[in-house]
Design goal:
Blueprint lengths: L4 H7 L1 H31 L3 E4 L9 E11 L19 H7 L4 E12 L5 E12 L14 H6 L11 E3 L2 E3 L14
Antiparallel strand pairs: 1-2, 2-3, 3-4, 5-6
């Protein structure tokens, strides 16, 4: 059975089969970003620190995270970029040999003393790699025409990361081999 490229792109069983291969990877990453990070923060205990040289409860500082979020990939502010669109797309990262990543921020809270006022501060934790076609990717809901306009494949299915310009697939399940020490 011969399938033309146009039939493949429109939604043939072959394309659906390819999408089903990566759908678990993309869904897992989406769950991690939308629910998993919040669950980690919810389970983290607060930390209490006594100010050096004191023993009074009023000088005890309590720290905790109240939330964490991951944004979408944007250009880093270096003062030299004149781009009008702050978004970064996978093709640009492939060509530049960079990582397709987004800022991960956390809201840190602290209070001094038992009934002290609570202070909040948003802090950038890191730049976290973004899975292509996930909810944090700019191509997540792009049509075929938009994909081609951005320099991507018209039949892009995603489910991989771009690290230092190279496409990397991370296996979620690893089965131990015989006579192989893990």
């Amino acid at each position: 059975m011969h399938v033309s490229q146009d039939d493949f792109i429109r939604g043939s069983p072959e394309r659906d089969a390819l999408r089903s291969i990566v759908s678990n990877h993309v869904a897992s990453f989406n769950y991690f970003v939308e629910h998993g990070l919040a669950e980690v923060i919810k389970r983290m205990a607060s930390v209490s620190v006594q100010a050096p040289g004191t023993s009074a409860q009023s000088s005890r500082i309590r720290l905790w995270f109240s939330g964490v979020s991951m944004k979408t990939p944007v250009r880093e502010r270096d003062g030299l970029s004149l781009a009008r669109d702050p978004r970064v797309f996978p093709r640009e990262c492939r060509e530049a040999g960079s990582t397709y990543k987004a800022p991960m921020t956390a809201n840190i809270c602290w209070s001094v003393g038992e009934a002290g006022e609570v202070y909040h501060h948003e802090l950038q934790l890191c730049q976290f790699p973004v899975m292509v076609s996930s909810t944090r990717c700019h191509l997540a809901s792009a049509s075929r025409a938009e994909l081609i306009n951005r320099g991507e494949e018209g039949r892009e299915i995603g489910g991989y990361f771009i690290l230092n310009g190279n496409e990397r697939m991370i296996r979620l399940l690893i089965q131990q081999r015989r006579h192989y020490i893990m």
